[in-house]
Amino acid sequence: MTVQLFFKIVSATFMAIITAITGVFGMAPEQKEICMIAHRGYSGRYPENTALAFEKAAENGSGGAETDVRITKDGVYVLSHNSEVVLKDGTELDVAGHTFAELTAQPLKNKKTLDEVYLCTYKEYLEIMKKHNMVCFIELKGEFSDEQVREIFQIAKETYDLKKCILQSFEFENLIRARKYFEELPIMLTYGQGDGDYSKCFEYGISIDADYQVATEEMVKEFHDRGLEVGVWTVNDPFSLAYCKSLGVDYIESDYFGK
Q1: Domain ranges of the chain
Q2: How far apart are CA 149 and CA 154, in angstroms?
Q3: ∠ CA 61-49-109 to the nearest 5 degrees?
Q4: Strand bridging mode 187-191 / 165-169
Q5: Which of 74-78, 145-149, 187-191 has the lowest average pLDDT?
Q6: Which CATH architecture has domain 33-81+120-254?
């Protein structure tokens, strides 16, 4: 964390405390409603990207859940941040190099709870999101063809609601490819430190999901002035949370926080 960011966070936290105190006396300004997104589900407490983590995110009051989509050797869309999954006995299997049956032959390794959890499919995730009326942050991992991108969001359209789904990617071409097939699909550029100019988003009407350490009031204003949204990731402590809320972002991704 940079010194500049540290002082921004301290300042924002101080303002949040003042706002809370004045709110007791009815003097606090109206606060912007921010949607909290469970990063890979409630991953701070439960095994990430599993049905259990998504259900617990809903129970914890999260407005949505972020996930990572990969494709198995036999064409099944599954959820995993890493290219490999680790099974209960410690076996590591490459998602792209194995079939869904091989990847689910036994539970996943779970160091966080005593539950037996299996590799979650993309469709199962969508069904959980639909049940709880939650926002879907969907990041595509690995290489996907045009046809696969179209199929992924056709599944979302048929299973849930495209307006409740947001495609995210570091790769701008993935975003343009999806926009070609689904004009109504909300899209965000995933943006981190050292990623350079984000002004190309404005040309295509694409929102942004930024590392909270590079998010600024100026960035938020630039996007909001164009009717675009801003999300930040991954915010896991109260001080950084207060800072991000002070920026007026639309979404905050976290491993822990619900409402």
Answers
A1: 33-81+120-254
A2: 9
A3: 125
A4: parallel
A5: 145-149
A6: Alpha-Beta Barrel (3.20)
